[in-house]
Amino acid sequence: MPALLFYLFALITLGFGLMVVLARNPVTSALSLAMSFVGLAALFISLDAFFIGTIQILVYAGAVMVLFLFIIMLLDIKAESDRMTNVAAIVGAIVLGSVLAVQIATVSAAHHQSDLSVNDAALNLVAAGNQMAATKTDLPTISKDLKAGILPDTKLMGLALFQQYGFHLQVMGLLLMVGTVGVVVLSKRDKEVAR
Amino acid sequence: MITLSHYLIVSGLLFALGLAGVVARRNIIIIYMCLEMMLSAANLTLVAFSRFHVLAGLPDYSAQALVFFTITVAAAEVAVGLAIIVALYRSKQSVEVESVTKLQG
Amino acid sequence: MTPPAQETSASLPTLLLLLPFLTALSILIGHKLLKGASVVLSIASAALCFVISLMLLDARDSAPILLPFIEIGKFRIALDALIDQQSRGMMFIVTSIGLLVHLFSLGYMKDDEGKVRFFGSLSLFMFSMTGIVLAGNLFMMFIFWELVGLSSYLLIGHWFEKPSAAEACKKAFLTNRIGDFGFMIGILMLFMANHGDVSFIGLKSGFAEGPLHEMTQTHTTFMMLAALGIFMGAVGKSAQFPLHVWLPDAMEGPTPVSALIHAATMVAAGVFMLVRCSFVIEASPDAATIIAWIGGLTALMAALMATQQNDIKRVLAYSTLSQLGYMVMAVGLLAIQVSVSHHEAGPGHPAMFHLYTHAFFKAMLFLGSGAIIYACHHEQNIWKMGGLMKHMPVTFATFAIGTASLMGVPFITSGFWSKESILGVGFEACRPLFWVGVFTAMLTAFYMTRMFVITFLGKPRTENAHHAVEAPIIMVLPLVVLAALTVLSTFESFNRLLAAMIPNHAEGHPTVMIASIAALIIGSGAGFFLYKGKDSDPLNIKLFANKFYFDEIYAVIVKVLQDQLAWVVTGLERMFVDGIVARLPAFIAVRLGSAARVLTGGHLQAYTFLLGAGVLMVIYLVVFVLPQLGH
Predict the structure, then answer these.
(1) What is the rounded distance in angstroms from the CA atom of residue A169 to the CA atom of residue B18?
(2) pLDDT for residue C136 is more than 50
(3) Which among A185, C255, C349, C578 could disulfide-bond with C370, CB atoms 3.0 to 4.6 Å apart, if both were Cys?
(4) Mean pLDDT value of segment A126-146
(5) Is the pLDDT of residue C496 over 70?
């Protein structure tokens, strides 16, 4: 990916991120967050993570943001009132944010691979395809794609999830179910409390 | 040339922004959005490391699997969190953090 | 062909333990469902236990593990049995008398409302007693030791609606607790000294050549305290002075219970345990002397008290006390003898022999008294009986055999031989105690004759006694069987089966025999002529009738101690608990709280900020400071 595009998408991500924090109207915040996620998805794709990029858009920018907007609309939340803004909170936020940013920058600059570029860590799809064709004969489509120089990202992701992390996936399913039940319980209007 | 540290710094900035938002904003929904932003920033780091850690010619898919799980958890968390917010709104008629003072000593 | 034999010897004890346990359990759980069947169940289990114990008589010596339950490294606690001559013989006593008492109770408790509860407790007792007899280590013995305490509590308090019974069971339980506490300390001392091995085999080898062997020379005080700690257990359970006060009161329980628990088996468990642990006592001559004297003192004192009791069961209870004192004295005396002469005692033990003979005739006497009480409509005062010889011939005959045995009529009764063996040891080991023993024997003859004459001879003194009829067959049968066992146990050929019980025949010193026969003649003669044809007691010794005022003395001691202790404790509480423990921390907490209240203003944003600042601090410390410190 050209450097220019990286800077563009980084700018989109961070700029709309800033909008989320600054906007007075929650709807603006939510829409900005969606845009920020789209930029982030583009960054994922620039890192050859097509599947993650896609679900970032589908799940976050799609489902989650719709949920946010829905709740905002449902509760009919207006822009923050004009009450005196909490200066202490804002100062604290700026201090915390900048200190954290400096810390992270320092750490990532000190990382031993920090000046590694995408070209330095090039993918060798054909070699990987040959190796896979030799070791795992039951995956013909993946190795065929790889040999043809295409990165079958979703298939590889599925391979990782179902071969290496099958149990974890099951646990995730359980978690989602618990979440669903929890939401139902929480949303149920408690008659005792209501009275 | 775009290097690993570029990605890491973008991710760090996004995280710092999220943190600042969580501390500064009073609207719980927006605080929630900022939390989501922080989660995504962490995801970006993971994906970046996955790409730059080449295993046998391919990115390290373990990291991406972790990102996948994070997104799943985040989705569940959003659902539960928003349900809590709705419940809170029902009892307080407000989504401002000032209205939550049960923890006052 | 060792393995099969090994197998039987492991499965028999397990069965022996499980049977009564499961019976008690099923009665506990299903007593509503089982009703009358639970009585049958209990008796069946007792009968089976008896059969198994008969089979066990033939088994070889072994130490099977029944149920391991704690294993931490080298430290191991398990339910392991020790099958040897002693436990086999004791098991025979426990199960045979147990079975007969079960049968007797069937008649005695016929109309009792709590019959099912009674039989359930009886099964529980059988279970715990079996456990004590089988126990291969002191931990297991202690567990079952507590269990017999519990079942005895339940059975003494069977008629708990009667205030005296409720008091008596409480008293028995609490008094036993004191002894058990000492027992536990003794076990723990041995546990420490023998590096965590308290199995009887391990302890025995420990004393022979292990770590304990040296300690008997170097740490005499420690060994004495350990032996006395173990002895404390027996003091409680076998009702020795000064914890003897519970046993006479325990007669508030149903008479079959008195026969089984408070005459034949449980109270004898203390003696059994002492014999098992005899190597501990032998290691410390001082402890052995103390034990012998306490036994002698108990024997003498209880005999004196028995001379003035008017309740038929209480007379028997004091005589039990006295005989238990005899056995304990024998344990101490033999230990003195062994530690002086330094030669191994044989498998038989005079205390065990006396325990064995005493178990039969005392159980019979109690059951006989039960039959009398039953026949006289629950009248226990001997002065309200009389002339029962004509009305209850079988009871009379068995009672006569029992009395003769207890008094030690020479040559034809088992009691004579066992008493002889004890006196023989006393004659050699400690002369003063020998004379105490002889004097006690005389008193025994006196009070037994007194009771016998008042109860059976003369004329009936009340209507109840006049209308007394022989007890039903189910109650008479156990009496007859026990009488047969009492008579049989006189003969060597019968006793060979229970070889463990009989001490190696030492040459009886003529003085011993002459002294004991003289004691018998003087005692019973005095009793006979003093009480023949009397309607009230010609002797009136307040001190004996009131049991040396022990209960009163204890009450005063407890009251004084309690008051003083309460006074001290109140002062301590005012000063330390109220001042330092309660007020000071409260003050600190209040101050700290008001300081911390500033931080916890209830503002979520402030919390978040503090959280974030904390995280940043941690990052700073971990990432930037620690590497510089060289981590």
Answers:
(1) 28
(2) yes
(3) C255
(4) 81
(5) no
Which chain A positions have a beta carbon within 8 Å of C620's beta carbon? 103
Strand duo C75-80 + C65-72: pairing: antiparallel
> What pLDDT digit, counting tens, does each position of C498-547 carry?
655 555 555 567 777 888 888 888 888 888 888 777 777 677 777 766 77
The more confident residue out of A75 and B13 is B13
Closest CA to C326 of C357, C363, C286: C357
From the candidates C603, C616, C617, C620, which should be mutated to test the interface with A, based on the most A CB atoms within 10 A? C616
CB of C540 within 8 Å of a chain A CB? The answer is no
Asked if residues C524 and C445 have their Cβ atoms less than 8 Å apart, the reply is yes
CA distance C144 to chain B (A): 54
Nearest to B10 among A14, A67, A159 (CB): A14
Contact (CB, 8 A) for C238 and C275: no
Instruction: Read off the amino acid at residue C277.
Output: C
Question: CA A147, CA C258: separation in Å to the nearest integer?
Answer: 95
Q: Burial letters for C557-571: b for 16+ Cβ neighbours within 10 Å, e otherwise?
A: eeeeeeeeeeeeeee
- Provide the pLDDT for residue C2: 35
- What is the number of other CB atoms lying within 10 angstroms of the CB of residue A45? 20
* Predicted model pTM: 0.62
Contact A89 B23 (CB under 8 A): yes
Confidence check: pLDDT of A15 > 90: yes
- Among partner residues C605, C613, C623, which is closest to A107 by beta-carbon distance? C623
B32-36, C38-42, C282-286: range with highest mean pLDDT: B32-36
| Spans in chain B with pLDDT lower than 70 | 101-105
CA distance C323 to A132: 92
Task: Please determine, for residue A16, whether its predicted confidence score (pLDDT) is greater than 90.
Answer: yes
The Cα C356–Cα C502 span in angstroms is: 9
**Residues 6 or more apart whose Cβ sits within 8 Å of residue B81:** B32
- Spatial contact of C530 and C457, defined as CB atoms under 8 Å apart: no
pLDDT of C1 higher than 50: no
Q: Give the relative orientation of helices C510-531 and C431-456 as an angle to the nearest 10 degrees.
A: 30
The answer to whether A29 and A20 are in contact (CB under 8 A) is yes
Q: Which pLDDT does position A36 carry in this prediction?
A: 93
C537: alpha, beta or left, given left = phi > 0 and alpha = psi -120 to 50? beta
Question: Tokens 């999220």 belong to which residue?
Answer: B18
Please give, rounded to a whole number of angstroms, the shortest distance from the CA of A155 to a CA of chain C: 38
Of chain C, the end-to-end C-alpha distance in Å amounts to 67
Token pair in block for residue C546: 């009131």
C609 vs C72, higher pLDDT: C609
C148 touches C132 (CB < 8 A): yes
- CATH 1.20.120.1200 in chain A, residues? 1-79
Residue C4: per-residue pLDDT: 41
Rounded CA gap, B18 and C157, in Å? 74
Start-to-end CA distance of chain B, whole Å, equals 54
Class of the domain covering A1-79: mainly alpha
In B, minimum Cα distance to A15 occurs at: B14
Looking at every residue in chain C, the average pLDDT score rounds to 81
Instruction: Please give the torsion angle defined by the CA atoms of residues A33, A38, A40 and A46, in that order, rounded to the nearest 10 degrees.
Output: -170
Question: Taking the alpha carbons of C424, C430, C436, C439 in that order, is the dihedral positive or negative?
Answer: positive
Amino acid (one-letter) located at C605: Q
**Residue range C150-160: mean pLDDT, rounded:** 87
Architecture of domain B4-101: Orthogonal Bundle (1.10)
Contact assessment for residue C13 and residue C134, using Cβ atoms and an 8 Å cutoff:
yes
Show Cβ contacts of residue A3 under 8 Å, excluding neighbours closer than 6 positions: B1, B2
How many other CB atoms are found less than 10 A from the CB of residue A120? 13
> How does DSSP assign A45-102, residue by residue?
HHTT-HHHHHHIIIIIIIIIHHHHHHHHHHHTPPSPP-SPP-HHHHHHHHHHHHHHHH
